Every structure is written in C-alpha cells, then in structure tokens.
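=== RUN LOG ===
request id: a7f3
mode: sequence -> structure
chains: 1
length: 272
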Amino acid sequence: METVATAPRTSAPADDGRTRDRVSALLLEHGPQTATELAGRLGVSPAAVRRHLDALVAAGRVEERQTRDPHRGRGRPARRFHLTDAGRSSFPHAYDDLALTALRYVAASGGPDAVRAVAEQQLAGLEVRASSAVEEAVRAAGGRPVDRAQALAGALTAEGYAATASAISGGGQLCQHHCPVAHVAAEFPQLCEAETAVIGRLVGTHVQRLATIAHGDGICTTHIPGPLQSRSPRTGNRSTPVRPVLGERAAPAGARTSTSTTPTNHRERTPA
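=== RESULT ===
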C-alpha cells in the first residue's frame, strides 16, 4: 500500500506569533484601528482578531482607547487599538548608526576628550538614578562595597543591563549580561571607561574592568576589591606584590641584605 507523505503542520503558537506580528505591522503602517478594520485587512473574523489583540494588550505591545468617530454620529465611541512604545520598539531601529555618526563627528571636531565628555553626560542620569537605589539599599544592608554592588546590580537591571553581583574571595564581581550600547562602545571605548568610573563611584572604591561585551566578551565583568586589597595598612597606598628585578635572584630566607649603595665589585683607589 502506497503511503502519501504529508507536510508537517505548523504549530499553533508559531501561527499566532506571525498573526500578531501582522497585526502590529498594520497598526504601525495604518495607525490606530478597530478590530473590524484589522479583520478586514487580515481576511479573518473580528472575533479572531480580538483574541490576538487581547494577547498583545496583555504583553504591553498594544493599548485600547475609546475615540469619537465623527462619521458614526452619536453612537457608542469606537474602540481603537494603538501601538505602545514597547510595541514600536519591537521593530528595527537605526539608533546605533545614528549614535556612531554623531560620535564620529564629535571625535573629528573635538578629539577623544569631547567623546569622553559626551559619554559622561550620557551616563549622568543613570548615575543619579542608580545612586538613589544604592543608598536606599545600603541604609538597610550595610556600606561594604560588595553590599553596594548587590544594590547596584538591581538598579542596573532596571535600566536594561541584566546585571548580577557576587562575592568572591578577593572581594566581589559585578556582571552585566547585556550592554545597550555595545556596538557603539566597540568603536568608542570612552563609553566603557566612563561607565567603569560611574561603577567605582557608586560602590565607593576603585574597581577594575576585566571583560566587556564591546570587546567581544560574553559578559561585562567588573572586579570590586575587598578591604585588604584596596589599601595597604602601612603606606595607605594600593598594595602591590614585590617582584625581584629581572636578572636578580631572590635572597634565601634569613639571609642579610646589604642596604649600601656603594658598588661591591670595584678596585680601591689610592689618593694621588
């Protein structure tokens, strides 16, 4: 008996997703519309369109408004559906290209310092908003840099950075899993430098960037040193390990070292 091959059926969720994308595209192209108007353009029933509109409203991509239509006389206000800002953001944008063009012009006119000034200005609002969240959390939890980093991670997540913070043996780490300006920062590292400075001020200590999405890493990682790493107890300066000078050999434990600056391999001279 001969079998007939049948094409695989497309899943209902995939069909629903495509139909909702078409509904959004029609609202973008033709502006606010009623369910009946959308149904006529899609070739489906108004009831089917309303099901998709309800899903889009629940997702925050569409909102419903009642408006008076002068052509309908004194009847009930028409229920028209509008795209929200979130709905519009789902369509392609050229913001990166615009930002790159603007910063290239700034760099050509004012040099790297002008680009840095733009980056600092762009992050000023973020710093103010994050600072309020960090200070509020610190009053409840504590003032350690790691505690501040935890609060900062929450503030950055609210700004779209998908940030997390964790404590490690040497202090802490702040990880940003998304960078809204990664494509621009790849050409203008001043954005990363300004952001690192903001993080340092918000956590209250010197920090070090270990990786950035703009340079091809999967995550932006910032190291936050612990209390013992930040300052040396004797000098007050940042502590650094002492390494032997190239070509010298470290003295064995317990050996006496000379502090004289007089060369030891010389010939004595007799006065004339």
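=== NOTES ===
Residues 12-89 form a domain with the Arc Repressor Mutant, subunit A fold (CATH 1.10.10.10).
The chain has two domains: 12-89, 95-230.
=== END ===
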